[in-house]
Amino acid sequence: MINKLFPIFKKVFYANCIFICSTYVLAMDFENKWTPLYKGVDYRLLMKNETRVHQIRIDNNDPDIEIFVTKPLPNSTHTEALKTSTFLAREKAQVVINGSGYAPAALSPEGALKQCKSLAIYDGVLYAKHENEDSAFVVLKNGKKKIIKMSELPEHKNNISMAIGAWDYAGIQGLLLDKGVSCLPKPMPAHEIKARAAIGISKDGETLFLVVVEGRPREKSIFKQLVSPSISLPDLASIMKDLNCDRAMTLDAGGSSSLVVENILNNKPLVLNIPSDHKGERAVGSHIGVKASYLDNNNQLKIFRALQENTAFFDIVQKSESALNEIYMNEDELALLDAGDITPLDKLYERFGVGRYIDSILDYSEILEAKGKSFEKCFLSKNQYGFYCGAPNSFFKEFGIKTNEYQMQLNDLTFVQEDQGAIKTGSVHANIYMDANKIYYFVQSPKSVKNELIGSKLMQLMVGTERTAIVKLLKDKRQKIAARMIKGFRIKATFDTKDKRIVGCAELAIAMDFLGLINRNESNIGIVELDSKTLTPARVDYAYSFQFDQKGGAKSMSEDRDPLCLKQLYQTLEKYPLSEILPALEKVIDISDDQIFIEVIRCWAALSDLKIESFSLKEATLLASKLIQRKNIFKRVWGELRDNQNRQNMAVISKLKKKEEKWKDQIKENSRRIDKSAVKKASKK
Questions:
Q1: pTM of this prediction?
Q2: Which of 21, 83, 426, 617 is deepest in the core (most CB within 10 A)?
Q3: Predicted local confidence at residue 522, as pLDDT
Q4: Could you tell me the residue range of the domain that residue 540 belongs to?
């Protein structure tokens, strides 16, 4: 999904700019120094050669601290796969580290079922037996914390409240230290050098340590340049010994290793380490959570401001709002922060161009794969598009896809200002409202609610959410929509572009070509600042989407034959160099058929639920199929351009126009195969 979220030009920008500053920033405040985060909880960044080791120290004598593990699903021995940050937010914890191993071990989306592969006890109830591990971390019913050997389990069995077994790996069964001495075999069996996690406890039992070591990213990871080298298991044992641990054991390693804290500035998760998976945090089936009280002093605000800036480069690349959002704070708290010598976050926004408000995008392909399904099995049978995994609403319920996330209540918003004209909102006048999280929306009556909703959702797949006015339906004002304000958006005609570099123009143009957005006036396309010298175009107003079905095409077309209404695409190809066109086309063809089809039907469900605009399931299915066919045309255009990069661009475009008539005939033949009665029958299932 990363490829769908981040423009190529930004990947290069982030990876290089952030990598240059990361070493200095990380060492700024926390290196080799324990810093209090919460009452009884401290953090330290240990630099071992070039490796970053993140350490949490917990006072076991603090009565306000609660330590717990992942809870199994109701009436089940399975757990739900969740990222550590999601687990922290859901449980309202202050610290979370990944737990032990689980099955299936393959990467999966959040929500997938997992089975713990080591001892697991929650609230005194055993839900996973120990397998090969030789040790476990336990919380006794009297509140004491221990790391026990499995041989000691019988004497504690009836007195355990929480427990999680070690992760056995590389010829060891989990125990790193016993009585402060390494338990690793000599010589040590060959094993991978990868990211690692461990838990340890002091001899007097008064101090608990959580440790995550960064290392070895996946080959395709966009964080590849940012992750530090890792260490061996003997080195990990040495780190735990240096912490004066009496006993220590391993937790799950590799991409599972993750350490997250709650950012008190906004009560959002803050990922301390850079995960080694190519998409960031991994959804894991086992966690250890810590709940603690806040420290009541103004210095904590500055500590967390520094902490989030130290980890901000990961959040910027990952597009997480967690470390870059202070809108929840009042003016007094902000004044305390800005009075210090810490760089205000507005400087980070200015430097990296990160939007405050980031909407999540579901990866429907992963959701289907997790259930053993595919696009062909669910939506395409004998060249007939329809629902073959049950009726739409049943399908959404089974796969956990919520259509009400595209809806909101106007009564839940706070009125801010009225009658904002086209100079700010696009071609339609609107009023400004604000939600409880201080996210601002333009509320307006568009020419087409359906096109606004579907167009905005598809646009965000191609150019990202920071350049798109994400649209939501209003339950209590059904002919109006709420369009999220784009941070820093200004109409191009009002923006001084002198001495500015504008990037991403071809990408937005290709995206509009794909959606059939024939309206390109300056009221709908604006500019967003990436930094003081760099701008990028952004789009609002999707009412004129999907005009590729009009007979004769757009009004601006000449007498040239254009059977697939690709006139504007050709104009885009003529306007921009191939070096910009090819990556922009790749953004379109990288969208999976699942993503297009389910997104359109999900919008149909949201519209149907509120009985907004005449838009049947058959029409939605046909629109989705036409978009998929159009994507395939763009893929052919991309192939022709890629294969003819050494030829003049104009000659290639001429060749494309000659082939277009043939493509039109093929699409007509495919469309005939879409049996309308089959679509109607599928909609009634």
A1: 0.50
A2: 426
A3: 64
A4: 364-406+490-683
